[in-house]
Amino acid sequence: MEVDILFKIAAIGIVISILSKVLDEAGRKEQAQMTTLAGVVIVLMMVIQLVSQLFYNVKTMFQLY
Description:
Radius of gyration: 17 Å
Mean pLDDT: 92
Low-confidence stretches: none
Order of helices and strands: HH
Structural class: mainly alpha
């Protein structure tokens, strides 16, 4: 597993957390929630790609069709 993907996920989490906190303190709770939701969707897409790659690797390793 590549370590850089973990750093990317962590960086996205930190940036989204800070941005959400700033928007929340500014009184824009709806935008803060949408920002958090967008961050979750981005990370979820990255994880789905990794899981898909894992299943492909397992399938090729055991020569399953």
